[in-house]
């Protein structure tokens, strides 16, 4: 009960798991429906999180935390994700690009049939991407941790973001063991205490955390958390999947924008970025990096797609 009160007080609408289990004894259809109304996800994000909760429980049984911690002793240190974005911004005068390796999405379905994660990652790097984001969710995005590991082992030098729906610290250790240098934390899913705890774990592992927000309340919560260095503003409402670039501008105006500058937080614009005008709009709002997936992944020439998006070649 205490957990629910904390979540509600922070304005978190996404429930971590179904509130009630299935009935323990036989009940009639009407009674069954009444008992299970709360067990229906309210939106796609909640559905993903509920599935992830079960998936992680199964994965943890197969790979307990102590085995992951052992595996971390034998891998090279994490790369500087934030440093790569800052230096790209300084070099080009444009937002540093986090290019996303993504096969599918719940709203758009399959984005690319002929999907080779390593080839796509190499093309993005050659085209001027500062960092890469790799989807690891299988059910909804057709991604995998194997893709992440394959990209890292193929010699791609860009720092890698674990693009996953994080509900437990175990996933961070697992992602690190597969070569991730940074991890996504979603403020509409995680209460403040979880975000603080996970940022601490990432710092110990040498990883960056990209904390994603969607509205003013989430931005205010995240700005109050110590140790946040990288904030992503998602222009897509994860409950309705509608996109509005104005969200970035709104969240970076006035006192919030001032506080972000004072804390030297790097802001990443996410979703709805398709043209040089879109990039210019979010950069004008105060963004120093952008995360782009769909508008790049669908093109046959990924290097050319990056140049088209930014209005010029950013690889030099």
TrEMBL record:
Recorded metabolic or biological pathway in which this protein acts = Amino-acid biosynthesis; L-tryptophan biosynthesis; L-tryptophan from chorismate: step 4/5
Keyword annotations from UniProtKB, A to Z: Amino-acid biosynthesis, Aromatic amino acid biosynthesis, Decarboxylase, Lyase, Tryptophan biosynthesis
**So what does this thing catalyse?**
1-(2-carboxyphenylamino)-1-deoxy-D-ribulose 5-phosphate + H(+) = (1S,2R)-1-C-(indol-3-yl)glycerol 3-phosphate + CO2 + H2O
- InterPro entries per UniProt: Aldolase_TIM (IPR013785), Indole-3-glycerol_P_synth (IPR045186), Indole-3-glycerol_P_synth_dom (IPR013798), Indole-3-GlycerolPSynthase_CS (IPR001468), RibuloseP-bd_barrel (IPR011060)
All residue ranges annotated as the Indole-3-glycerol phosphate synthase domain in the record:
45-309
Enzyme Commission number(s) of this protein: 4.1.1.48
PANTHER family assigned: INDOLE-3-GLYCEROL-PHOSPHATE SYNTHASE, TRYPTOPHAN BIOSYNTHESIS PROTEIN
Q: Give the protein's recorded name.
A: indole-3-glycerol-phosphate synthase
The coding gene here is LOC104725307
